[in-house]
Amino acid sequence: MKVFQVDWGNGYNAKSEVVISTATSKIIKTTRQFVGATPTGFPVMTEIFETKRARIKTPSDAIDLRKE
Q1: What is the pLDDT of residues 7-33, one digit of tens each?
Q2: How far apart are CA 37 and CA 11, in angstroms?
Q3: Which residues contact 61 (CB under 8 A, 6 or more apart)?
Q4: 1 neighbors 17 (Cβ within 8 angstroms)
Q5: 40, 46, 52, 53: CA torsion to nearest 10
Q6: SS3 for the chain, per residue?
């Protein structure tokens, strides 16, 4: 895991943790803990990245926007 202190170009500041796979070098998860103001109103933002497309399933009621 790498930990960064990040100053965003739009005035926000966050301590960011980035988890990178040692096997594939792909980002698995990021967590941002904002210092002061936040872009979303929440003090913590987490993103989880799925790297195996076969695990991603479309809901049965999903609309295919490519056909719209």
Answers
A1: 777 788 888 888 888 888 888 888 988
A2: 9
A3: none
A4: yes
A5: -10
A6: CEEEEEECCCCCEEEEEEEECCCCCCEEEEEEEEECCCCCCCCEEEEECCCCHHHCCCCCCCCCHHHC
